[in-house]
């Protein structure tokens, strides 16, 4: 094979590692964990949602649960103690050979040649993030490869409207719509994160301000406690929030902080 994993440490320790720690999307979690508990995980899972909704995190937890060596029938959480679970989080030097993660724009003809064999192995997991960024001709070829796959394929997209209709239609029955958390869910998440990192704060109103400023995007919310810890020594104050967000109203600030360039096919 010419290419393997493109991510040296795919299971970022700062992200939730278990389903119980995922914020929001309870109905989607119920459906996916139900399949895992019954050992009937769909061969393809297609996650569709906006930036910061937790698609990548969820896909990686699904992969981690699938790879877990001690998970029993009726269970869906990774055990967090077997060699594979520990390796998934801690080992940055030895990639998990059964796990293959790519960004859509990184997929090449050579990678598809490799995947042709990989997809015939039931123990393999392939995750393609930002599927809409794959070149159209490669995406059409990949669509045909989905037929009869034995591996687990995890796909995610931020812009489903940029995926060709024929491909989107093929994936429709595997699609799960992911949304950003509510303000309350985001605040609860922030509170747990800050406490875990021993960062003090004065009120939940502060956390509401942060959640609104970041438009409930999980990516910056997940990094916020470490940011406060490194920049203030572990104390969240109103003055710090004023410095961070300025005088802009939260939603206006969210538009500034949340902007991402859309990458077109």
Give your account of this protein's structure.
- This protein is an alpha/beta fold and 265 residues long.
- It has two domains: 19-177, P-loop containing nucleotide triphosphate hydrolases (Rossmann fold, 3-Layer(aba) Sandwich); 183-258.
- The chain is built from eleven helices and five strands.
- The protein has helices at 26-37, 55-67, 83-90, 109-118, 136-145, 165-171, 183-196, 204-213, 218-232, 238-245, 250-258, and strands at residues 44-48, 99-103, 125-129, 152-157, 175-177.
- The longest helix is centred in the C-terminal third of the chain and has 15 residues, at 218-232.
- 36% of the residues are buried.
- Residues 1-9 and 249-265 have low confidence and may be disordered.
The run of helices and strands is HEHHEHEHEHEHHHHH
Give the CA-based shape: globular
N-to-C CA distance: 27 Å
Biggest sheet strand line-up: 2-3-4-1-5
Instruction: Compute the number of structural domains.
Output: 2
How much strand?
5-15%
CATH top level of the largest domain is: Alpha Beta
The CATH topology of the largest domain corresponds to Rossmann fold
CATH architectural category of the largest domain? 3-Layer(aba) Sandwich
Q: Report low-confidence residues grouped into runs of 5 or more.
A: 1-9, 249-265
- The average pLDDT is 86
Helix content: 40-55%
Instruction: Outline the biggest β-sheet.
Output: 5 strands, parallel
Which structural category do the helix and sheet elements fall into? alpha/beta
Count, helices: 11
CATH fourth-tier homologous superfamily of the largest domain: P-loop containing nucleotide triphosphate hydrolases
Number of strands: 5
